[in-house]
Design goal:
This protein is mostly helical. The chain contains 18 helices and no strands.
Length: 439
């Protein structure tokens, strides 16, 4: 993979994570505050769905070289779309999916997303060529876009408000478990056949789909269908920018086609911004940014995941390219970070620290890991203690910060409409939102 292709994949990952933050925290505000204890079923069903989304992210990265070996005729730029197709479709459909869930029901959209993800996984596993694989990955992204913004809202709707912080931590921990197991599982399965990394999704999706029948459907709202043309503009814009970055080394800055693709992406995103500001049901509702606590949490978590995306890609490449570790050994070496995130996410859900302090503490841990690696991690450095210490610190940072940002961001949003009323921009509302963030 060329450097520009890696940057393109990183751009897609960051876009995907940033929009997932916006969609998830917006849709969480719809969870009811007055539901009874739903038992273990909702937690297992939604936890399994969370595992799917996280597992796919970590497993496919380690199998990338094996996938390329199976399709020798495919160019490196084409192969990057095995990663990018998932992220681009996911990013484009994520936020509108929240509005579709408002209109048609979260349980219905959640189950539809599981079906789409399972179908995409099966298609990827039996793909005879790279084009089919890319299309199947796009279907996986569409399924994940339906699951993510509905899953946590369904979970919170099944439990009383006093348990919501605990549920957020468990939801985050479920993803962290998959993240911890993903590198190891991906390394092991890749040793046999990379197609198994997609087949492994099928029983998990089936379990979640079966248990989801016991979830209670949330109330639907008589809302307008979201701006699907705006979603298409988002696909076009992000896809064009990723293509421009991926092909810059092949086309060069002087190539008119490169400038045409780059311009098309910029125009599409500018058009999207204009529609979001004017449309009655925009693809991305920017009015939620009027809530100060939500805005601060969204920006903070987006910035945090810039570093997280770089760390995720860089750590894997360092083990496999610099130290020349096998996929299995690299998976084992990297798993210490996500495993730490599981523990710290559970602890963060139990402690009485304010969300803003949890977010800050997580950022400090992550920053400490970066400083440690910058000064001490070299080709001659051993796994113990430098690399291991860094992965533990990044894992602790991710588990703690994610809980703090989600809990703090959701607290200030209105609970009956995902689009904040004009009153949200008034000084009293801003003061209340700041108080919620602090608590």
């Amino acid at each position: 993979m060329t450097a520009s292709s890696l940057i393109g994949s990183l751009l897609t990952c960051f876009k995907q994570v940033s929009l997932s933050i916006l969609a998830t925290m917006t849709d969480l505000s719809q969870a009811s505050k007055n539901r009874g204890d739903g038992g273990l079923g909702p937690l297992v069903a939604i936890g399994a769905a969370s595992v799917l989304a996280s597992l796919d992210l970590f497993v496919v990265n380690l199998a990338f070289s094996s996938i390329g070996a199976s399709f020798p005729a495919a160019s490196p730029q084409a192969l990057t779309w095995v990663l990018n197709a998932y992220g681009v479709v996911f990013a484009a459909l994520l936020v509108p999916s929240g509005r579709l869930a408002d209109r048609f029901g979260r349980k219905r959209l959640f189950r539809l997303g599981l079906l789409a993800f399972g179908a995409g996984s099966l298609g990827a596993a039996i793909a005879p060529d790279v084009v089919t694989l890319i299309v199947a990955r796009g279907l996986q992204g569409a399924g994940a876009a339906l699951v993510v913004p509905t899953s946590l809202a369904l979970l919170l709707a099944a439990y009383p408000q006093e348990r919501h912080k605990r549920m957020v931590s468990l939801w985050a921990a479920a993803g962290s478990v998959a993240a911890a197991a993903g590198p190891v599982l991906g390394g092991v399965l890749t040793q046999y056949d990379w197609r198994w990394i997609f087949l492994i999704n099928l029983p998990i999706a089936a379990l979640s789909l079966f248990l989801a029948t016991g979830l209670e459907e949330t109330a639907t709202l008589d809302t307008k269908v979201p701006d699907l043309f705006g979603s298409a503009l988002l696909v076009t814009g992000v896809g064009a920018l990723v293509t421009a970055v991926s092909y810059v080394t092949e086309w060069g800055f002087a190539d008119p086609w490169w400038w045409a693709v780059l311009t098309a992406g910029a125009v599409a995103l500018a058009w999207l911004l204009r529609r979001c500001l004017a449309h009655e049901a925009p693809a991305v509702d920017l009015r939620v940014l009027r809530v100060p606590s939500f805005t601060v949490a969204t920006l903070g978590m987006a910035c945090f995941y810039v570093g997280f995306s770089i760390m995720l890609l860089g750590c894997s490449l360092f083990l496999t390219e610099v130290w020349a570790w096998t996929p299995v050994l690299a998976g084992l070496g990297f798993a210490s970070g996500p495993a730490t995130a599981v523990v710290t996410a559970l602890i963060a859900g139990r402690v009485s620290l304010e969300p803003r302090r949890l977010a800050g503490l997580g950022g400090i841990f992550f920053l400490a890991a970066g400083i440690l690696w910058f000064f001490l991690l070299t080709e001659q450095a051993g796994y113990f203690p430098v690399y291991l210490a860094g992965t533990v610190l990044t894992g602790a940072g991710a588990g703690i910060a994610q809980t703090g940002f989600l809990a703090g961001g959701v607290s200030g949003l209105p609970h009956r409409n995902t689009r904040p009323a004009p009153e949200c921009s008034t000084p009293p509302a801003r003061s209340a939102a700041r108080s919620a963030w602090r608590s």
